[in-house]
Amino acid sequence: MPQFSLTKRIAFFLPALHGGGAEKVAINLLQGMLTYGVSLDLVLASKEGPYLKQVPSQVRIVDLAAGRVIKAIAPLSRYLRETQPEALLSHMNHANVIAVIAKVLASTNTRLVLVEHDTLSVAQPKLLRAKLLPLFMKSLYPHANAIVGVSQGATSDLAKHLAIAPQKLHVIYNPVVDEQLITKAKAIPEHPWLQNSTIPVFLAVGRLTTQKDFGSLIQAFAILRKIRQVRLLILGEGEARQELEALAQKLGIAEDVALPGFVENPYAYMSRAAAFVLSSRWEGLPTVLIEAMACGCPVVSTNCPSGPEEILAAGKYGVLVPVGDISALATAMLSTLEQPVNQELLIQRAQDFSLQQAVPKYLALLGHNKV
């Protein structure tokens, strides 16, 4: 591990930069804070993932080379002692637990702020260590200076299940919309379905995991496909790929369902899709839903905890359906196709989740005195 300089700076800590919403939010925050002249470190347990290409060149990347995040305790503690950053902003609950332990061991005055991107009480971890995580969170989170929930729902959930003092909890909506997103949305998508075809395409974006419940989406699409000629694109990668492909084959819709994997520029797809669908079982604040709206794409979402109801203002900006209700999802997809919400309304609403809104709030919470 390299020697560290003592320049006053803010550090971000994440496990890696795989293609998820929390990682994308971190990238956006880094870009936004640079406009305030902040010196920034991005500290990674392991320097890997597709979002590495999107890290601004002015940000110093510190690779702890720890592999698994649990092995990052000692190198992160050393980084904090030697660099003594003004503040450490940690993302994702398993990394947050490690950040608290490392900060305690380092015995520095670094201000520690944790960001919680999920709704804790409804998450369904499979591994035993993940199931035990809430116990560690309840014990360790109070040692942080502040804890950010990315939606009102996620923050209320933290207060209820971790018994954290209210003065330590803050709601800051994810910084999603910036000029770069708008520019990227104008590009031509790589997939032929969105280039010259007149057949409507539904779009979903996210990791292929249980949480995203793309299985229900594919089943809802199969119902819709019986009455309309439509297609479905699901962008992302994950362990459920084979299961989802087999389901599409079983339902006889494989020719109209495509899973191209992780895509560098999903905004080009969003700006040309007939509608965007979020089928998740739970979220914190689904970034992709806001991104789709910023691209002017009509949206349909499950009313999962937490975030969609807040983003869509209880259905004003898009149809909300019960989690796992395949019939209701199919109906909502059809109604959105036939009567989409006005694009300008969607774009205007998405601006409430902009960098300009979020960055000053984060800098104030981090105690940065140049705001």
Automatic annotation (TrEMBL):
Signal peptide: none annotated. One of its GO terms (molecular function) is glycosyltransferase activity. Residues 20-178 form the Glycosyltransferase subfamily 4-like N-terminal domain. Residues 196-351 form the Glycosyl transferase family domain. Keywords: Transferase. The keyword Hydrolase does not apply. This is Glycosyl transferase. InterPro entries: Glyco_trans_1 (IPR001296), Glyco_trans_4-like_N (IPR028098). Gene3D superfamilies: Glycogen Phosphorylase B (3.40.50.2000).
